[in-house]
Amino acid sequence: DAKTTQPTSMDCAEGRAANLPCNHSTISGNEYVYWYRQIHSQGPQYIIHGLKNNETNEMASLIITEDRKSSTLILPHATLRDTAVYYCIVSTGNMLTFGGGTRLMVKP
Amino acid sequence: NAGVMQNPRHLVRRRGQEARLRCSPMKGHSHVYWYRQLPEEGLKFMVYLQKENIIDESGMPKERFSAEFPKEGPSILRIQQVVRGDSAAYFCASSPEGWAEETQYFGPGTRLLVL
Fold first, then answer.
1. Contact check, Cβ <8 Å, B101/A44
2. Coil, strand, or helix at residue A81?
């Protein structure tokens, strides 16, 4: 699976949009971009995934650049409960490779 | 809809004992994945199973670790003769199929502590 690069940590004010970037410059044509988050030491929670089109669901939006070498996860109105480690993963689905992720701290 | 179930949630073993971790996938899911998370690290893939078949065990340690997913019942991750380095959180995930865009849904994990 391709490697991803994410900032180690980010802060966001409560109620504002949180934009989490991810670089995946070596992504292959058949690899999807997945986003998961892990709140404290709970099991990872699926957020969203996409191949090349932008995606939106009730939790977040995923913006993938046209060349697919990077993406951004957008939490439109961050709350304190969104404080977590966010993992960007590129995968064909069978094996998820978790990197260090971005530790998002939502502050009041 | 019940999610992925794992038990026990916490397990304490002494060095040399056996640990058995159980995972019941979501209803309708026939694919199971096991991951291990050492303290302060990300999750590492261990093994991918379908019913009665091991599909990919490239992340499994060569010795003492085994996994199965029988026709009936939960998937089992078995660790024989545990050592302190096995202390970690073990997460199970399941998906309906093994296709590229099938999302994996994770359970709450089993925290193994080896004394």
1. no
2. helix
Type of residue numbered A11: D
**Quick one: tokens of B48?**
């991918």
DSSP state of A5: B
- Which chain B residue shows the shortest CA-CA distance from A34? B103
Contact indicator for B112, B21 with CB cutoff of 8 Å: yes
How far is A89 from chain B, CA to nearest CA, in Å? Answer: 12
Contact B101 A99 (CB under 8 A): no
Give the C-alpha separation, A86 to A78, whole Å.
13
- Tens-place pLDDT, residues A34-58: 999 999 889 999 999 999 989 999 9
Six-digit token string for A12: 């966001």
Structure tokens at A81: 């409960």
Chain B closest CA to A68's CA: distance in Å? 16
Task: Determine the Cα–Cα distance for residues B113 and B11; give it in Å rounded to an integer.
Answer: 6
**Is it true that the peptide bond before B8 is cis, omega within 30 degrees of 0?**
yes
Chain B residue numbers with beta carbons less than 8 Å from the beta carbon of A45 are: 106
∠ CA A99-A40-B44, rounded to 5°: 30
Q: Indicate the residue type of A73.
A: L
Task: List pLDDT tens digits, range B71-97.
Answer: 999 999 999 999 999 999 999 999 987
3-state secondary structure (DSSP) of residue B86: helix
